[in-house]
Amino acid sequence: MDLPVPCTFDFNVAATKYFHGLGDGEVPLCLLFSGSVFHSHDGAGVQVAPISWDKEARFRLPVQVWQDMMDAYYPGSALLCLRRDVFVRLYDYKVRHGIPTWEEALETMLAAEETVRS
After folding, report:
1. Nearest in space to 24 (alpha carbons), one of 77, 79, 61
2. Which residues of the chain have pLDDT under 70?
């Protein structure tokens, strides 16, 4: 049975930081289950069965699989979550300077910081 497992590239999520920090190897996963499962058996129609709270499945996820998935869904990208007040300040900066993209706004600010440091 295929089981979809949501993944994110949000660096505010500890698992993403952990996965990103690994160069290679495997990530030990332990999926915990509880609730109900709907199924049919021998044409008897839909049936419901409980899943005990202590059911689990273990899997070793190759880090390369996670990296390939991130490259497929977020090619050449990383997500950055900002507090709304910081976003508004960044947006105002971008508009005030006529900067067309978020990347250019951040690159302009970083270049200014590097100039100040040198």
Report:
1. 61
2. 1
Closest CA to 33 of 4, 55, 50: 55
pLDDT digits (tens, 9 = 90+) for 84-118: 999 999 999 999 999 999 999 999 999 999 999 88
Residue 103: C-alpha distances to residues 23, 46, 50, 63, 109 (Å): 26, 52, 49, 28, 10
Give Cα separations from 89 to 46, 93, 115 (angstroms): 54, 6, 21
Interatomic CA distance for residues 7 and 63, integer angstroms = 13
Nearest 5°: phi and psi at 78? -145, 145
Residue 91 — left, alpha, or beta (φ > 0 → left; ψ -120 to 50 → alpha)?
A: alpha
Domain ranges of the chain: 1-80, 82-118
Q: What residues does 36 pair with on adjacent strands?
A: 50
pTM above 0.85, yes or no: no
Residue 57: beta bridge partners?
Answer: 31
